[in-house]
């Protein structure tokens, strides 16, 4: 029995991903699981107590006044519970289906918390210029550990924007697009437990968290191991090249 016959919803996910460049999978995690990971995320950030703020300089024009952001690369190297989630078939089967491949390889992960009232936005961009690959079989999954309505600064997407291929970005203050306008992107409000999958060519960003609650997400960037990078970047990311599903047919020659 194939994965798609065992989970027929995967075919519809793959079709939307191909047509629009993204798919929001509702309830991939239960509400209880999402709350559990939210707690571990905030506990981990409090334990590490790091003061760096990854807010992009290019995001300054999207907010009135200063904003803040908390983050952590490679959470799975600090807490084994995140490592379990990386290889959970509920996630990896969708990642494989939307890319149209059998094998899924880790590129990197980032934990983000947008604090209440002034959580930092991200301007519209593609992920491609940060780590370009030859065949563009690279994607992202954003796990929502709490609700992310528009007022919390949810992700915004330009549907179908991946079909035009890589775009020219302004590198000043981190890669971002000068057009289209941020307001033209479609908000993707999500609930705790939802996971948003999108290609690294999909134009996306997110707004300011103006609510009175934090927005907690975990970003997992994944790829087809047969798709070689064209530029060596993110080599400092711990665990890059870890197989999340299947095998690496290249013998790690692309890592």
TrEMBL record:
Signal peptide: none annotated. It comes from Kribbella sandramycini. Keywords: Dioxygenase, Oxidoreductase. One of its GO terms (molecular function) is 2-oxoglutarate-dependent dioxygenase activity. Pfam families: PhyH. This is Ectoine hydroxylase-related dioxygenase (Phytanoyl-CoA dioxygenase family). Coiled coil: none annotated. Gene3D superfamilies: q2cbj1_9rhob like domain.
